[in-house]
Write a structure and sequence with these properties.
Number of strands of chain A: 10
CATH superfamily of the largest domain in chain B: ATPase, nucleotide binding domain
CATH topology of the largest domain in chain A: Nucleotidyltransferase, domain 5
Strand content of chain A: 15-25%
Helix content of chain B: 25-40%
CATH superfamily of the largest domain in chain A: ATPase, nucleotide binding domain
CATH architecture of the largest domain in chain B: 2-Layer Sandwich
Largest sheet of chain B: 5 strands, mixed
Number of domains of chain A: 2
CATH class of the largest domain in chain A: Alpha Beta
Oligomer: heterodimer
Structural class of chain B: alpha/beta
Radius of gyration of chain B: 18 Å
C-alpha cells in the first residue's frame, strides 16, 4: 500500500490573523483550504491587534474546521491525523488552533502533529508540484526573512536570517510612514509600479559571503529621507520612494538567494511566505533564475498568505515520520525551526 | 449518560464528570495554580475519564464556563469544549464563571457577590441571591470600579457574602463600605467548582434548553482595549456587545 498517497491530514492554522483549516491528501493534493481573514477587522487599528485576533479566532474556529471537512467531502473519522501550527506567531492566537487540534485529536483518537509555521510556508509549494531535494527556500514574511536548506522532507538547515527587522516588517513600517492604508506591503508594491527608483537608498550586504539580512538601516534611511524633506518643505514623490525602497529590499533578497543556491549547489529555489505575493519580487526572482537556469518555485497568490493547507502538507511528512505530540502540546510564540 | 464539565476562566482549573441519570458527581479535579491551562487541561480530562473507567462514548453532554476572567484562559476552555462537542456530536452548555462561583453561597441567607480582579481597581462581579435552589441575579454581571460597586451593594441593605480568592485584595475597602454586613468565604468556598458548573448544565439539559452552537464565543464582559479606544475616538456607531 502506498501510505503516503492515502494519507488524509486536517491542518489548522491560527498563528496571526487568518483562521484556517484544510484537508490535504497524500501531502500534495489539496481537498479544501478554508480561510477566514480578519484583515477588515484589523484595518481600522492600522495593524493586527493580538487580543482582537484571538477573540475572532475562538468565534470562527469550529465553523472553519467543519467547513474544511465538508468541502473536502471527508468524514472526521476518515482523517489520519490533525496537524496544527505550534508556532511561531501570536501566542494567544496560536493557542486557539492548538487547543482545537488537541481537543480534536483526543476526541477522534487520532495522532496530533505539531507543525512549524515556516515549514508550512515552504510546503505551500509542494501542493502545486512535489518538492525536489536538495533545495533552498527563501522565506519572506512579516515575521521572517530566512534562507533555508533542505536535504529531504522534514530536514531544515538555516543558511541565513535577518539580524533585525523582517522584510515584511520593513514594508509595513515604511508604508505606515508613507501613510498608506493597512496592510502596507501590497500598497507599496502597487505604488512602486507607478514610480522610478530615483531615491538613493542603502543595501545592507553585510559580510561579503554572508547569507544574513538586515533591513533596519534601510528603514531608518527612508525615515530620515522623509523627515529631511519635510523640514526643507520639499515634496516627496511617493511612487518613486516606494519604487526605490522596494528595489533596495528586492536587490538584497534576490542576490542573497542566488548566492545561497550557488553555495549549496542545489537546483531548486523556493519562494515562501507572505511577501512572496509581492509582484516585484516574483518578476525579479523569475528573471534571475531564468538567467542562472535555476528551477524556481513560487506559490500561487492564494497559498502565499497564511493558510492551513500548507500546514497539512508539511504535517503529512511529520506524520509519516511518526513525529507526534502528546496532549500537553503548547503554543510556542518563538518556536525555532531547527532545534 | 455522563456530562463532562470544564472551567479554565481563572487561575482555577476545574474538570468534573457528572452522571445525568443518578444526578451524582462522579469525579472532580481542581487546581489553583498560576500554571498553563493549555498544557494541563486535556491531560486532566483524559486522566479523570480513565480513573472513572469511562470512555468518550459514555459522554452525553459537555459544559464550559463562558467567562468572565482571564481572556486566554476562557478561550482555552471554550475552544476545547466546543471542538469536543463538534467532534463527538454532543450538546454543549455554558454558564458564567461568576454564577458558578456564586453557587458556593447557595445556602447563604442574603446576597452573594463573587468577584474576580479586573485590574485598575475594577472587578468582574455580579450580585446573586439563592432562590428555589438556583442563583438568580440581583444586579447584572459587569466589570465595574470596586468603590462604585460597593456603593450599589450597600444600597441593597442586606448581609453580603463575598466569594473568590481575589476578594482578599479588596477586603479593607469592602469592610469600610459594608462594615458588619459583609462576610467572607473561607478557602474552599473561594474556588469555583466544576461540579457546580456540571449541575447548572444538567439543569439546562433537563429543561431542554438549546445548547450552544459552533460559533459560540466567550462573554468577556468588556471590549478589548484597542476597540474601546477606537470607539472613544470614533463614536459608538460600530459598537459590539461586550
Amino acid at each position: 500500500m502506498n501510505m503516503q498517497r492515502e494519507t488524509l491530514i486536517l491542518g489548522i492554522e491560527t498563528s496571526c490573523d487568518e483562521t484556517s483549516a484544510a484537508v490535504v491528501r497524500g501531502g500534495t493534493e489539496l481537498l479544501s483550504n478554508v480561510i477566514s481573514s480578519q484583515m477588515d477587522v484589523h484595518r481600522k487599528f492600522g495593524g493586527v491587534v493580538p487580543e482582537v485576533a484571538s477573540r475572532r479566532h475562538v468565534e470562527r474556529i469550529t465553523i472553519i474546521v467543519q467547513k474544511a471537512l465538508e468541502e473536502a467531502g471527508v468524514g472526521r473519522n476518515e482523517l489520519d491525523a490533525v496537524a496544527v501550527t505550534q508556532g511561531p506567531g501570536l501566542v494567544g492566537a496560536l493557542l486557539i488552533g492548538v487547543s482545537a487540534a488537541k481537543a480534536l485529536a483526543f476526541s477522534l483518537g487520532k495522532p496530533l502533529v505539531p507543525v512549524h509555521h515556516i515549514a508550512g510556508h515552504i510546503y505551500a509549494n509542494h501542493l502545486i508540484k512535489p518538492l525536489s531535494f536538495p533545495l533552498v527556500a527563501l522565506v519572506v514574511s512579516g515575521g521572517h526573512t530566512e534562507l533555508i536548506y533542505m536535504k529531504g522532507h522534514n530536514q531544515f538547515e538555516r543558511l541565513g536570517k535577518t539580524r533585525d527587522d523582517a522584510a515584511g516588517e520593513a514594508f509595513d513600517k515604511v508604508a505606515r510612514l508613507m501613510k498608506l492604508p493597512y496592510p502596507g506591503g501590497p500598497q507599496i508594491d502597487r505604488l512602486a509600479l507607478e514610480g522610478k527608483p530615483s531615491y538613493p537608498l542603502p543595501r545592507a550586504w553585510l559580510e561579503s559571503d554572508s547569507l544574513d539580512f538586515s533591513f533596519s538601516g534601510l528603514k531608518s534611511a527612508v525615515l530620515n529621507l522623509v523627515h529631511n524633506a519635510n523640514q526643507r518643505k520639499e515634496e516627496i514623490h511617493y511612487a518613486d520612494l516606494a519604487a526605490s525602497f522596494q528595489d533596495a529590499v528586492l536587490d538584497v533578497l534576490v542576490e542573497k538567494a542566488m548566492l545561497a543556491v550557488k553555495k549549496t549547489g542545489v537546483n531548486q529555489l523556493l519562494l515562501a511566505g507572505g511577501v512572496s505575493a509581492n509582484s516585484g519580487l516574483r518578476v525579479r526572482l523569475s528573471k534571475r533564475c531564468k538567467e542562472e537556469k535555476i528551477d524556481l518555485r513560487i506559490p500561487p497568490l492564494e497559498l502565499c498568505t497564511d493558510n492551513a493547507a500548507m500546514i497539512a502538507a508539511a504535517g503529512t511528512y511529520q506524520f509519516l515520520d511518526g513525529h507526534y505530540a502528546d496532549l500537553t502540546l503548547n503554543a510556542d510564540a518563538n518556536l525555532p525551526l531547527i532545534g | 449518560m455522563k456530562l463532562l464539565a470544564m472551567d479554565t476562566s481563572t487561575l482555577v482549573m476545574g474538570v468534573a464528570v457528572f452522571d445525568l441519570e443518578t444526578k451524582r458527581v462522579l469525579g472532580e479535579v481542581i487546581t489553583n495554580l498560576h500554571n498553563n491551562h493549555s498544557v494541563r487541561l486535556m491531560p486532566t480530562i483524559e486522566q479523570l475519564l480513565t480513573e472513572l473507567d469511562l470512555s468518550l462514548d459514555d459522554l452525553h453532554a459537555l459544559a464550559v464556563t463562558s467567562g468572565p476572567g482571564s481572556y486566554t484562559g476562557i478561550r482555552i476552555g471554550v475552544t476545547t469544549a466546543k471542538t469536543m462537542a463538534w467532534a463527538r456530536e454532543l450538546p454543549l452548555y455554558s454558564e458564567s464563571s461568576l454564577t458558578v462561583l456564586a453557587m458556593n453561597g447557595i445556602r447563604f441567607d442574603g446576597l452573594v457577590v463573587p468577584l474576580f480582579d479586573a485590574r485598575r481597581r475594577r472587578v468582574y462581579s455580579g450580585v446573586f441571591a439563592a432562590k428555589d435552589g438556583e442563583m438568580t441575579e440581583v444586579l447584572p454581571q459587569q466589570v465595574v470600579p470596586v468603590e462604585s460597586w460597593l456603593e450599589q451593594i450597600k444600597a441593597l441593605e442586606k448581609p453580603v457574602l463575598f466569594l473568590g480568592d481575589d476578594v482578599e485584595r479588596f477586603r479593607q475597602t469592602i469592610e469600610e463600605y459594608l462594615g458588619e454586613r459583609a462576610s467572607f468565604g473561607i478557602g474552599p468556598e473561594n474556588l469555583p467548582r466544576p461540579s457546580h458548573l456540571a449541575w447548572a448544565a444538567y439543569q439546562k439539559w433537563s429543561n431542554h434548553e438549546p445548547p450552544e452552537h459552533a460559533d459560540f464565543a466567550p462573554n468577556y464582559l468588556q471590549l478589548t482595549e484597542a476597540e474601546a479606544n477606537w470607539l472613544k475616538k470614533h463614536g459608538k456607531e460600530e459598537g459590539e456587545n461586550g
